[in-house]
Amino acid sequence: MPTLARTRTEDLPILANPLYARRVDAAVDHVVQNPDLPLTLEDVAAVAGFSPFHFHRVFAATTGETLHAFVTRVRLERALHLMAHRRTASLTEVALACGFSSSSHFSRTFRARYGVSPRGLDIDRFRAEHRLHLLDTLPAGQRDRFTGTDAPDAAPGPADDAAATVRLRPLGARRVAYVRVVAPYSGGVAEAAKDLVRWAGARGLDGGQWLGYQWDDPETVPLDRCRYDVGLEVPDDVGPAAAAGPDDPAVGFTVFPPTTLAEVDVSGTAADELAALDLLYRTWLPASGWAPAHQPCFEAWRGLPFGDGTEHFELTVQLPVVPLTDAVQPLGWEPADVDPGSGPLRPGSRRPPR
To answer: Going by C-beta distance under 8 Å and a sequence separation of 6 or more, which residues neighbour residue 312?
Structure first.
């Protein structure tokens, strides 16, 4: 997982006190989880509980991007993800799933950002270049944690199929409390985890399932725009009022809908975890009949996060998936069953604004 540099309250503008941070995080989550919706200023402001007359300034002050720029970027990065993992999807399917009005609108916006049309982009080369850039940003001596070597051209390779077994299982909806870390890959996630552990322990919640996840793929998203959440599954009745203390971290809350999980256990280093991810994405997925769902890939810790330090990890990688034969579907769909040969998903209820 990334060792991210945490953006603390004192590092942000005066507006970014914990209450503002929680509200803006709710707006960010709504955009990232629902890129196919209209996402008007009025609707996103309502999710955050701000007046639309002032929300654009609040959002820009706390995130460094206007709402329009953020929505456009999220939609394009979601499109890159679909282009990489849903190779059979048409440009029109990708465009509509990402909130563009048409394939021509998508193509114009894509070319303006990346300099080529969607059809003209070599997505595999694009991701490989970003992966090497990610490795180049790691602190001196840290590359081997992720690749097993400090060779300048090294990159994580696929895991041995015999060494890791992929399991499929259904998962119900889960409510998650999280602390968000911004500007990844230069240290700080462990500190964020300690803050959330302290918060949870004071409320008797620290025995729940601990999670780590990020919506942003560092192989397609600028590293300074990635966000990583240290999370904890909590009961449905735990909400913002539980995170209102003056010394509490900026704890946000979100709900992930039911899904099917493809799981791989990891017991080892960061390089072992990346090998498990490569097994899922590069080896298992193409032959599985499944595709990534519009949820992040989770690190489900066995015990407390970083319970064995920052060099050895005991966790399960959880990739939410949907049948590959389905049309591209937005968040809010749930699996009928987990048989790899199962039929299509049935529509569930879209998560309402928080």
So the answer is: 267, 268, 269
